[in-house]
User: Fold this.
Amino acid sequence: MKYTNKCLVSPNVIARLRFLEELQDGGVNAFLEAISNPGEWFYLRVNVLKAKRDELVNRLRSRLPNLTIEEDPKIPEAIKIHVDGPMEIDEQEKKIDIDKFAAESVIIAAPLFSAGFKGTKSSFKKGDLVSMHHRFSTPWDGTQHDMFCGNCSALYHSDTISSIAKTIIARTVEPWFYVPSFQEWNEFKQGMLVDQAFPSMVATRVLDPQPGDQVLDVCCGAGGKSTHIAQLMQDKGSIISIDRSGQKLDQLARRAERMGITCIEPLQVAAEHMKSHLARSSPSKLFVDPPCSALGLRPKLYVDDTISDLDSFVANQIRILRFALDCVDPGTTCVYSTCTVTYEENEGVIAKVIEKDNMKIVDPGIKIGHPGLETDVLSKAESQKLVRFFPHLDGVEGFFIAKLEKQ
Assistant:
């Protein structure tokens, strides 16, 4: 059986993507086909506080000769591993149902965790080869879908698997695409490298953090960008990493400890309350990566967001960005980024900030990706300073980066 998936989206969401038809080398269909798979390369970031890239690459090549591992020529700390696939695999008679998050993970060889388990369709024993399926209906038309996501080796009997909690319940052994289990490598456990998408690394480079800077990272999540900022600062200076989620901040703390980073201060607080918690701080640089529709992430099997959902993202992005800008002084550099491609969440947000919040778009300092889209508010010269990545054109995740300066 061959992998022939194309990401499913509603007609209303497709309408938000129509601008892609104006780009060269493919439009909406090419984009949807691209985000349905992981792309040709999987990216890791070398922690230069603990390792040199060339030495680490040579070490990995020697230990893992079956992998194609390369140094990325554009980001000095980035390495990339070739993704094999799509494979041809046969569906099995024994089946298990999984949720959407698990489905998008196991197709690239991730193990199946108990949280992603939905139910069994047949009995099986520990060690049996079982097909993983994700069954769902698209809310915009009610159509029922059954996606075959790959085959796994069950770690438990079908009669007991539903009672297992918070652990791996099956190993993916026949995925559509093969991404190595890097989290099991000693180099990862020792903090020498971490997974981070290529455009995300570009965004941190655009911020251009220097040793001694005081950086405010808003909506930091599990700290991919925070730890990148820290290593570019040589762990000298301070980073206040803010997020609403205590769980994500715990992940950030563990990641920073593993990587030997000490300059990050996690702070659990909502955006509207940031300023009162930062009264004694004077950030010299600001990074804002607010929640978005994630229409650039891959692999993505389908999108169930509505137009109302997309509009809510935009309103929240503007709100968070304005709260963050209120925490910094004039002259401060700010980078705004998203992992989505819609105009409204990217150039649309920047246009509103430029028009009403006394901000200026500045040159990103990196010639990479594609320029932004022109708007009624942004001139061609301004849009040329914005950075975009398109999955079907650049082979990476969809992403947007704007470098701003507070006036």
